[in-house]
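Deliverable D4.2, example record:
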Amino acid sequence: MKKKIISILTAGVLASVMLAGCGGSTQAPAEAPAAEAEAPAEEAAPAAEAEAEAAPADVDYGTGEIKIWVADNIVDFTNSQVASFMEAHPEFAGYTVTVEPVGEGDAAGNMITDVEAGADIYGFAQDQIARLVSAGALEEVAPENVDAVMNDNDAGAVGAATVGSTLYAYPLTSDNGYFLYYDKSVVTDPSDLDAILADCEAAGKNFYMEINSGWYQTAFFFGTGCNLSYETDDAGNFTAANVDYASDKGVVAMKEMIKLKASPAFQNGSAAGETTNLAAIVDGTWDSGTVQELFGDNYACAKLPSFTGADGETYQLSGFGGFKLLGVKPQEDENKLAVCDALAAYLSSGEVQLARYNEVGWGPSNLETQQSDAVKADAALSALAEQLAYTIPQGQYPGDYWSLATGLGDDVIQGNLTTDSSDEEILATLQTFQDTCISYAQ
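Output generated by the structure prediction step:
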């Protein structure tokens, strides 16, 4: 029954796209992007209608309730898209869909705590996927949808949605990374970290970066070529750790963190709204509005800068790339599962990703949508896209890793490691860090 039901998903999604394009255009902040969102929908409509007419008319999908969890700022948008989807699919009329505001971080924790009481479809951050699979809270992506998900989205997003060799989620965004915001009246060369710090110091301004974060500090270590990743099995269990921070390249990275901390312009942090006297900050797209207000006409964005290491070599700051995903909870009722799959496929489609960008600014993972004029004209997303070419897609990490990494950064912030520390002292700290990381997979 499930394969028969899901075989009409393509027609269903295309039919919904026509309506989504119209709905998205009324909500978009700019006329040009909205018109762009409508164009593919109008082209797809005839094919959708033809395929919908060919779909079996006598399939009984049953009745039920479907609960969706999404971030608070896209509840209204999601309600609108669900309404369009249900209107295009009268065959699913027996289902009532409720959209509730539960953020990506809370959603994963809630699902793991009580899968049965959790949402049927929910958004979550990719670093939670291994835990969700282990808890039995994620259904595999329907086989009929796998090729479309893998071909239509960028490789980083697809990798983030995969555990072992199995695709478990529908990508929503490729915008959870970091790059450089800067005041162009102060920073004259955003490509070089030393030059940025010199400009900030000369102007009496601050440079912000959160070096005691396991997310941001990887910019230094991945930049010098270090590895820190974990392998998981199909059940989401950590089976091996690949870490080489305790190495010459790790020492170079740590020395650069120490050098940054020594600058009078340095401030530890990554939230633009909590800064003072700001001239540059390593931050993400979620703070673009705040930074624009702070910098006004001097607002500018760029990929992260390079730096000259203690060994005399030049390194490009790297780091993690992150993604938002949409998951479907396993269902006992195959009919309900098929409806959930169809709805998740639609909500993660390229056309809806473009409408979602127009509405709330979430950066798409869909390859075609990334090339739209609206997305390419976004300075923050353009800087992030450039930076993502140098980053590592964030895989799965044990929860203890994050607190361990905070301690590593705190050694620098609190002065346990300084510019006077020897290579041997730095290496010893990195060896302890590395050994502890490896222990999490044993």
